[in-house]
Amino acid sequence: MLIETRAYARAGLLGNPSDGFFGKTIAISVRNFGASVTLYPSPELHIEPQLQDTNVFRSLYHLRDSVSTLGYHGGVPLLKAAIKKFSEYCEAEHIRLPNQNFSIRYNTSIPRQVGLSGSSAIIVATFRALMQFYGVEIPQPILPNLVLATEAEELGITAGLQDRVIQCYEGCVYMDFDRDIMERQGYGQYEPLDSRLLPKLYIAYNTDLGKQSGRVHNDVRARWLKGEPVVVETMSAIADVAREGREAMLRQDGKALNELVNRNFDLRAQIYNITDRNRSLIEAARVCGASASFTGSGGSIIGLYRDDAMLNRLFVELKKINARVIKPYVV
């Protein structure tokens, strides 16, 4: 029995990053890039390392670049953490797992450290493989919680639920993380939206070497927890962008969506520090006439473009600053 599972990259379209602050978001799965997991029975539980997990390097500079983009441990810790969290979930739910071992390996085409959620895609694909191998069903709204707990509790990665929800649900999803809803049922209200309602979207991401995500933080959460008015009000306004965006999508109002994408970033920039590199992505896209906001925490942007001529300008102008432009494939 050979099991193969997959999870895709994702992009936050509107409301990002209010998901970590009881806000609202709209996100899409980006099927241009994905992470796959292969699992099959074996005498012992064996995690097969991939090329990016190697400890052999061509030079000191090869090691430096590898660590800059992949961290010190590659993808194997993600698989270990997911397997551990899966077993703990089954134990807590009194699900008795058969005594059978497996070999598991992963592969990914998701660009690393540019805000497209490559790490969580590997974890989602791992959970799907384990569920299939052991015949365990985890309710769809609960699975994102487990993926987030895997990253936060096991690996110390700072993240929100939005990425994991869209990677578990796929397509295009409107998410409401209202505090009352979260406290009452333990997860948000997730509404799949017809992806045919999406306007013409592009994504651009850095092709320069990035840095490991979850390592660089600022003080926004601490300020929010203290109730600092400018942070609380701005985060609420970012959540409203997603609410208004849902309404604009349903009425097919591309002009409003375009303005909301720009507003999302402009609000974020009021309370978050934006690096020169990330700001250059935004500015280059807007000079072309497109809207632009972050897909995640930085490193890639998403926005609306008007026509092929504008898309071609995006290709040209963003290439000048070492960024690649794609049209996201959303089912």
UniProtKB/TrEMBL annotation:
The keyword Acetylation does not apply. Residues 247-309 form the GHMP kinase C-terminal domain. Signal peptide: none annotated. Residues 79-171 form the GHMP kinase N-terminal domain. It holds the Pfam family GHMP_kinases_N. The keyword Nucleotide-binding applies. This is GHMP kinase.
